[in-house]
Amino acid sequence: MQSIVWESVDRIPGFMSRGECDWLAEKASTAAQWTEIGAYCGRSTLCVALHLPKGGSLRIIDTNLGTISRSGQTLFTTYLEIVQRRPDLEIIMARIDSAVAASRLPDSDVVFLDGAHHYEQVSADIRAWGPKCRLLCGHDFNPPDWPGVVQAVKELIPCYAVVAGSIWERQI
Ligand SMILES: C[S@@+](CC[C@H](N)C(=O)[O-])C[C@H]1O[C@@H](n2cnc3c(N)ncnc32)[C@H](O)[C@@H]1O
């Protein structure tokens, strides 16, 4: 796996720590398909895209796709960097609600949940995407800030682990 080029990633505003980016990159390196729910400006997206295997498939889902701009960075500027550096990837980007996307998109080796963070929405995401992937994981397992994420994961995933920062994964 190539190491992360932090000057590229750190240009992108977002909520993913370097340790969490490292974990995403490592998991991406063996994923044939990766579906990300909630991309914001694409910080986590870039980490994943740069590490997917050759010819991998990246699906990017965000209800606010095209409307978020921070410090001159948008998901589209990140997308342009991805297609320049990884022209081999298949990429699907959709401005659509996560649960609706689950009913329209194909199964995915990995699904990373970082969209809506309230209990009902995270529960809906886990129910919708859980049967459609091998590795289900997500961000913000963080009781003080996101109690709804923690409650939904604990209730719906009997065997989970917090694996890097606030990233959780379903263990098989
Ligand atoms: C915490 S941000 C994602 C951060 C990003 N992964 C990063 O590395 O910076 C959450 C994103 O989820 C999107 N979102 C919120 N609810 C959603 C839903 N129901 N379906 C799809 N995307 C959603 C928001 O528009 C926002 O861009």
From TrEMBL:
- InterPro entries in alphabetical order: SAM-dependent_MTases_sf
Sorted alphabetically, the keyword list is: Methyltransferase, Transferase
Which GO molecular function terms does the record list?
methyltransferase activity
Which one GO biological process term can you cite for this protein?
methylation
Which Gene3D superfamilies did the record assign? Answer: Vaccinia Virus protein VP39
Pfam families annotated for this entry? Methyltransf_24
Q: What is the designated name of this protein?
A: Methyltransferase domain-containing protein
Species for this entry: Planctomicrobium piriforme
